Amino acid sequence: MTPTRAARPVKGGRRRSRRRADMPLLGGVRPPIALLCVLVLALAGLTAQVLGPAGEQAVPEAVLSSQQHFAEDGAIALRASIDERVTDLNRTAAALNAGTPVKPERVLSDLGKTYQKWTGTTVLDLESGKVLAARGETIPLGWLDKDALTGDTALKPRMVRLETGDVRLMTMAVLGSEDRPQQLLIASNSLSVPAINLGQFRSMAVVATGGEILATAGFEQSEALNTDQERKELAFLQKQMSGLSAQAARETEQDPVSAREPGSRGYPGVSGTLVGGSYKGRVTTAGYASLSSSDPEEKKSVGAGLGLTVVALLPVIQQQAAGPDRELYGLLAAGALVVLGLLAAAVLWATVQRPLLRLFLESRRLARGDLTRPVDVPRWGEAARIGSALERLRVQLGGPADDPGGRQRVKGRFGVRGPLALTAVLLLLWCVPVGLLLNRTDDSVSIPASMVADQRDRTDLVADRVRRALNEAQADLVSTSRLIDPGDADAGRALLEETLREHTRYQALYLLDEDGEVVARAGEEPRAPFADADELPLVRVAGKGGKKPVVQAGAPLPGDKGTTLVGEVRVEFLNSLLKRPGLGEVRVVDSKAETIAASDGFLAFEELPRDALADLVRAGSVHVGAGPVENGLLIREGRGTTVAAAAPFSGGGVAADLGWTVVSWQNAKDFQITPYQREDRSVLAGLLGLALIVVCLGWVHLVVARPMRALAAGAEKLADGDLKSVLYPRYQDEVGAVVRSLELLRQQLQARKQTQARRLAEPQAGVRGR
Question: Distances in Å between the alpha carbon of 553 and those of 376, 402, 472, 539?
Answer without folding.
Answer: 92, 105, 10, 4
